[in-house]
Amino acid sequence: MTQINGRISALREAMKKAGVAACIIPGTDPHASEYIADFWKEREWISGFDGSAGTVALTHQKAGLWTDSRYFLQGAQQLEGTEIQLMKQGLPETLEIIPWLSTELRKGEKVAVSAEMFSVNGYQNMKTELALSDIELVSIDLMKDVWIDRPELPKNPFFIFDKKYTGKSVGEKLDELRHEMKKLYADVFVMSALDDIAWLFNIRGNDVDYNPVVITYALIDEKSATLFISSEKITTETKKYLDKNGIIVKDYFNIHEELQKIPKSKAVLVDAGKLNQSLFEAIPAECIKRKAMSPVFRLKSVKNKTEMRGVRNAMIKDGVALTRFFMWFEKSLKNEKLTELSISDKLRSFREDQEGFRGESFGTIAGYAGHGAIVHYKATPESDAVIKNVGILLLDSGGQYLDGTTDITRTIALGKPSKKEKRDFTMVLKGHIQLALAKFPVNTRGSQLDILARKAMWDEGINYGHGTGHGIGHFLNVHEGPQNIRMDENPVTLMPGMMISNEPGLYRTGEYGIRIENLVQVIPAEKTEFGQFLKFETLTLCYIDTRLVEKDMLTDNERKWLNDYHLRVCKTLCPNLTEKERKWLSRKTEAI
Fold it and tell me: What pTM does this model have?
């Protein structure tokens, strides 16, 4: 960790030269991405922490990393030996970054950030809050002179995502977008979110791990659509496609210059939660700024029939791969040395055998015993645990197929489970089933349903720190909004066609983790005199380990759901399995 401390010293020298007293380094990129290209991994470079959520703030004397409960254990391990203190967000004793800086700095001092790395909302909120303590927020890219051996931006060619998968052409999607822009009285729309752009233009790429996106910006007005992209990423085929659809192409780094050319009479739509402050500042001051959620963000969250047909096909392929993996795993555990990393590789190999597989949708979380209690655990050669015939394995994984994106968690007994393990597992299962069975009126928000997944655990004084459900893209990002199911309030209502995860969990530090995750789609239920009701259709096809179920804890309705689900899993997957595999799966899905 001497290297990390040396990097911190170099950054502090740059701070002195710039005349600033503090610096904030987020773990994101100019596109507000969750998974980012190596070029932008500044927070990881300065701290050594590689979790998906976390921000570093440092003064000349102190340094801290702020992250949430998913990464408390991982953060403690990766920061060990550095001078960076783990700041556990959400705990009463932990000050958030701006209040912390307000206590550490004197009036009149400056805090540096790179405006490219913060959304308009994030930047403005920090500026306002710091000003209350008479501290100034300034935009200075300190990292560019400190991180001198940073990787290059990816130059990978992108590819066209065919209409047979998307169900709509780029022209149809642009028409929809312009219709939404008119509703918002906007003439121009500035886009920076990579998954929004990939969806709108029906393109995909491999510029970042796990998410098949392309590093681009886009500018849409009443008549034209411009894509800002490196010329090295365009092939003869994709150039023809862009030309055919009337899409103008300009260099990726010309976005600021083009924004400055927007006529001052135009009203510009910006998603202030996504667009970075640097781009916002490039828009002429005289332009009216319409701040609203990206219409594309909402449009792509509601899957069409073609997309959902593909997703259901992807679920069958994923279910076949998982069945073959778990069958192999059960046999191999008896006579082979298996580790968290080796089984992750093996699971990927089973998915690779499936048609249209294009990679994992995120890094597999294979957490054996106590590692399962680390919500977003990532096995390394140093932590790679040998899996034994005792305890519990938590396996969270997903695949990217041309037809759709999958995300599934299963918790498996490796020996005879204890009463405590079975009770814990069954509480999670009850929550999962209660959410799966939910029926709710139109205009219901995810936060209103979250209690269904938690009640069995809350009754026992137990809780989990992560959300219950996140949206999922269609051969896109495995985490997609704007919908979710969690305790935090979110004004977005659940609409037919939205896809979301159902993943309650329970974690006992040092012992084990339990999570059961399926993907579901919101579909219409009946219409009554009280209005239209909605419900969930479970999409994921994989058995749930009934060895961990305490049957007496389930209600008749819950037991029926589990048996019906297993019947459907077996019936749907068996035509794609060998006779030996069918017999194995039939045993795993026997009614309880």
Answer: 0.93
